[in-house]
Amino acid sequence: MPSISQPDLVPDASSTRAEMESQQREIAALATFEDRFSFDARRITNPLEAASADKPLEAASTDGTQPIIAGVDQSFLLESEPERALSAIVAMRDGEVLERVYAVTPLEIPYIPGLLAFREGGPILKAMTNLSVEPDLYLFDGSGRIHYRQAGIATHIGVVLDVPAIGVAKSLLCGDPADSLEGLAPGTRVPIEANARVDAPEGTVLGYAVQTRQYESGTRSINPLYVSPGHRVGPETAADLAFGLAAEYKLPEPIRLADRYATTAKREYRA
DNA sequence: GCGACAG
DNA sequence: ATCTTGTCGC
């Protein structure tokens, strides 16, 4: 795993709530919500678009400079005593799985909206210890800058390790969509702006609601994802990458596979 | 007091 | 997140 760049900011579940919140403000101040990475993000394009394009799929994936992208997700063993978290990581390159690892740890604190990183951050860092490859980018299940103090779990882990990170949430923690989110077409995005409840100037674009998939017809519609910068990635690029990494499903592949692995690994672990 | 609230 | 049967829709 990458070295710890900010030892003092490693999530500590024994901190008081006030300490956690002030640490988050510190993290937000250290975070970079702009593109600061070395790989070529333009080469990450939606597999479905690539397939429909004129050139063969192989053409978009040749040399060995493709970035390693890791998806991170958790499952929980809530029946055990104490409750435990299973953190799973799937590292991919060029649409291929390079490595899958997981770690199980006891949970220290309950889920509190806004303090997720203090519940799941430890388990995640432990799982990273088992990785042999060094990802160029991490995708987390949860928010990044779309957070009361602009320091969601993707930002927290990103800053602690000083690695490019993006938050991909399935529901909106805070902020206001700049427009309606009903029945958006695939590829569409809507800015999520800071409001009075967010520690940022009102109207600041914190991230985007991103529609990766949509039903062709019908009454129901698929909800968008809420994508925001974690660290060293700007909001537009974060949205581009989330969309580009989604294949046949709503979730970007690295996260979808991490989600599945977290579930299957839990079965193995119990047995 | 009331409402909102990632996973 | 997790616990779970049926059920609506293509």
UniProtKB/TrEMBL annotation:
Its EC number is 3.1.21.7. GO terms for biological process: DNA repair. Mg(2+) binds at residues 73, 141. GO terms for cellular component: cytoplasm. Its cofactor is Mg(2+). DNA repair enzyme involved in the repair of deaminated bases. Selectively cleaves double-stranded DNA at the second phosphodiester bond 3' to a deoxyinosine leaving behind the intact lesion on the nicked DNA. Keywords: Cytoplasm, DNA damage, DNA repair, Endonuclease, Hydrolase, Magnesium, Metal-binding, Nuclease. One of its GO terms (molecular function) is RNA endonuclease activity producing 5'-phosphomonoesters, hydrolytic mechanism. It is an enzyme of class 3 (hydrolase). This is Endonuclease V. It comes from Natronosalvus hydrolyticus. It holds the Pfam family Endonuclease_5. The record marks 111 as: Interaction with target DNA. Gene3D superfamilies: archaeoglobus fulgidus dsm 4304 superfamily. Belongs to the endonuclease V family. It is found in: Cytoplasm. Its main location: cytoplasm. It catalyses: Endonucleolytic cleavage at apurinic or apyrimidinic sites to products with a 5'-phosphate.
